[in-house]
Write a structure and sequence with these properties.
198 residues, alpha+beta, four-stranded antiparallel β-sheet, 49% helix
Length: 198
């Protein structure tokens, strides 16, 4: 497998600005200066249980999953691909060890936005402040969407909605993790997939 080449940090800063907030050249310079690229092999842990989450992670290439253990079973909380953000929000803000873990499901490059540096620069740059707020808003909305999905939707509707919201995840993630994310057994997911025409 060829090693992944990361995009220039400037391109990632531009992509974040395009997605979350317009920025001046000076603000792009500042955002670029705090981004930290990290590469992970498939199966490597980005954040382990018991660690403190100090970064917001932007997935530039690859795929990651966020999961936790309950009764010795792994439960998938979130799966992120290129252009997605991932973080352990409670650990990030309370600065306490997390029960959640983040693992690379493919060869992956993430760009870290260290919370401390992001907050320092956001104090003096309104557009970086907006970017920070919008990233947090997006994360909270995704959590709510997932909670509502498993609370209110049938297995079939959960799968259909995920196909619409996250087609890359459906195509690339192992079925066992998709089933866990949708809170169904792999057998149920297989039945739903075979009876669903997307």
């Amino acid at each position: 497998m060829k090693p992944l080449a990361s995009a220039p940090t400037r391109d990632v800063a531009r992509e974040l600005a395009r997605k979350y907030s317009t920025m001046t050249h000076d603000e792009l310079d500042i955002l670029e200066s705090i981004l930290v690229p990290l590469k992970y092999a498939k199966g490597e842990m980005i954040l382990a249980e018991g660690s403190i989450c100090r970064n917001i992670y932007y997935v530039e290439k690859g795929m990651v999953r966020q999961f936790y253990f309950k009764n010795d079973k792994q439960l998938t909380e979130h799966i992120a691909v290129e252009g997605n953000i991932v973080m352990c929000i409670e650990s990030l803000f309370r600065e306490e060890p997390t029960h959640l873990q983040i693992e690379a499901l493919e060869q992956t490059i993430v760009y870290c936005l260290p919370k401390q540096r992001l907050e320092e620069v956001a104090l003096h740059n309104v557009n970086i402040q907006i970017l920070y707020r919008k990233i947090l808003e997006e994360s909270l909305i995704l959590s709510q969407v997932h909670a509502d999905l498993v609370r209110f939707e049938t297995a079939q509707d959960r799968y259909r909605k995920m196909c619409k919201l996250a087609p890359q995840v459906i195509r690339r993630a192992p079925l066992v993790y998709i089933a866990s994310y949708l809170q169904m057994t792999p057998e149920t997911l297989s039945r739903v997939r075979s009876s669903t025409l997307i």
